[in-house]
Design brief:
Two copies of one chain form a homodimer.
Chain A (H helix, E strand, L loop, with lengths): L4 H12 L2 E2 H11 L8 H13 L3 E4 L14 E4 L1 H24 L7
Antiparallel strand pairs in A: 1-3, 2-3
The structure holds a DNA duplex (30 and 30 nucleotides).
Chain lengths: 109, 109
DNA sequence: CTACGATATATCAAAACACGATATAGTTCA
DNA sequence: TGAACTATATCGTGTTTTGATATATCGTAG
């Protein structure tokens, strides 16, 4: 069924720029205001699966040495990953439109 | 983490009107154009969990006898269920807004 | 210079969840 | 009557999440 929430948020975070795991975790937590927390278990398991599926890949590019941290592993979204993310965004857009039309006791804050 | 996709779609379908299981299944499939398919396994397991959590309840109200089908079991969303759905819609709205602003290679069709 | 909190990755067991098959049976309509 | 559709239910398997634990580096306040 569609994309698991963790996969969606990882692709979403990587669509903006290459990131390392911890950065994905923090970005997602901030974006969702704490509603979606990717713990290490969920995060690294999902990164492995996404790489297996070819939706992300590990990047060799490193930031300037003075900004780098040797522990980090950077990930990049692939073309297939962008396509999967696009499909998911389209699906969510349809759902939100339907919610708006039906006025399901909800208004954007 | 937030709501599992199946839980979200069940609450979403019930927010419009009381429905029986099969109707939730069909409505969800139509809304998502086949992207989200709730098979019997996922559906009835999720209905049980949602009832345990007090987000839905079984309804005793039946449609007019000539429109009814004795096999059906109707479900209704509770106040807590509406609150959970509202929170989820708000979260998705924030995510979609962010996607729009960042222009993540996607345009509504 | 050292102790502490934040950063960063990794793995494990248990629980929650999804998927596909199978089962049963009533309904609709040709 | 028989085929397709409606409707609910359960089971085993596989996938995904959760929470705990582990290890180690980095930045910085004391």
């Amino acid at each position: 069924m569609a994309l698991p929430t963790s996969h969606f948020h990882i692709l979403f975070a990587l669509a903006e720029e290459d990131r390392h795991g911890y950065s994905i975790m923090k970005e997602t937590e901030e974006l969702t205001q704490g509603d979606v927390r990717l713990g290490p278990g969920a995060l690294y398991a999902a990164l492995g699966r996404l790489a297996d599926q070819g939706l992300i890949e590990e990047s060799e590019e490193r930031p300037a040495p003075d900004l780098d941290d040797a522990r980090r592993r950077y990930y990049r979204i692939t073309e297939d990953g962008r396509a999967a993310l696009g499909g998911e965004l389209q699906r969510l857009h349809r759902v939100m439109e339907h919610a708006r039309r039906a006025d399901l006791g909800w208004s954007p804050t």
